Every structure is written in C-alpha cells, then in structure tokens.
Amino acid sequence: MKRQIASSFPTAKPFKLPPSLALPRPAPPKAVRRAGLDVPIPRFFSDQPDRSDFCHVRAGTGIVVDRIGAVTDYRYELLGHLLSGNLFVEPYLVTLLTGAEPYTSFQHPGLKFIYLLSGDIGYQYGTRVVRLGVGDSLLFDASALHGIEDIGTQPVTYLSAVFTFRR
Q1: Does residue 40 register a pLDDT over 80?
Q2: Do 86 and 43 reside in the same domain of the chain?
Q3: Collapsed DSSP state (helix, strand, coil) of residue 144
Q4: Residue 13 lies in a domain
Q5: Residue-wise pLDDT tens digits, 128-140
Q6: 5 burial type by CB count under 10 A (0-12 exposed, 13-18 middle, 19+ buried)
Q7: Is 10 a member of any domain?
Q8: Which residues contact 96 (CB under 8 A, 6 or more apart)?
C-alpha cells in the first residue's frame, strides 16, 4: 500500500530562488561599524544591560572561606563572587597546608575545574587516579566522588572553580 502511494507522486526537484528574489544576508560586523555602531552583533541579542556586577580581587586579598565538609589544612581563598545571572561560579585558590592529608570523598553538584599551580598530586575521580603536575588541569562532573588521593611534591596550590546553576 505504501509503495503504491509513494509511486503515485512524482519525485520532487529542489527549488532554488533566483538571485533577484533571494533574501538579503545579515550585515557583517564591519558594516555595523561603518554605520557608527562599534558594538559586537551578539550584544544586540543579550541581556547585558541587566548585568552590571563584576568582582575584582587583588593578589593576596581573597576571602579565606571555611567550607563545609572541607578537611583540615586545606585552605580555600575565594577569588570572586557575582550576584546576578543563572550560573553560580566559585573560584578558589586552594593551598594544602603542612598537615594536609589526602581526602577523596568530596561530592557536590556542578562542574569542577582544577589547574595545578605548584606541587605534585594524585587526584582521584570515581575509580580513576590521575597524576597532576604544575600546569595540568582537570574538568569533571563533581557529582562523582573526587579529591586528592596522594600528596607528592609540596607545597601544593591549585585553582579550583565550581560551576552550578542557581535555583
């Protein structure tokens, strides 16, 4: 039955508008600048006027935060905080102090990014362990168990940023 119906219709040929009827293309950014507007095109479609907060933290002046669930001798220095938007970002400079012990039971919502600034560590994510040295980074879903499994060369400092949606 389907073949009979299908065979009764002729094969459609592609249709192309002649150039005289084609829709105009959007103006490139250069044309926008020529019109006296030195504004990137995406700015016209964003909610930037509603977002005016930013955070500038000078070197060494971040707020030391006593995080719930954080283990002893892990020092968290908050490097920024924004009040608007749907995305909540927690950027920290983390320093392992002299008495710091490995801890692999961190687990929380969001994505986590780590960038090692000094030292050498074994970092556990789920059942995997990755060796990190200076300049290495990790990006992962923080809902899995994770944390430092082995502290090698010290001092250990790293940037840690957690990204979650506000509710």
Answers
A1: no
A2: no
A3: coil
A4: no
A5: 999 999 999 999 9
A6: exposed
A7: no
A8: 73, 74, 75, 119, 148, 151, 154, 155, 156, 157
Q: Give the residue numbers spanning the domain of 111.
A: 50-165
Of residues 164, 159, 165, the one with CA closest to residue 76? 159
Residue entry with tokens 């961190």: 106
pTM of the model as a whole: 0.67
- Interatomic CA distance for residues 157 and 73, integer angstroms: 12
Tell me the CA distances in angstroms from 28 to 21, 69, 123, one per residue in order: 20, 51, 46
My answer on whether 44 and 109 are in the same domain is no
Report the amino acid identity of residue 26: P
pLDDT in tens, 49-58: 555 677 778 8
Phi, psi for residue 157 in degrees, rounded to 5: -135, 145
Q: Are residues 82 and 34 in the same domain?
A: no
Do 137 and 160 belong to one domain?
Answer: yes
CA distance 72 to 148: 13
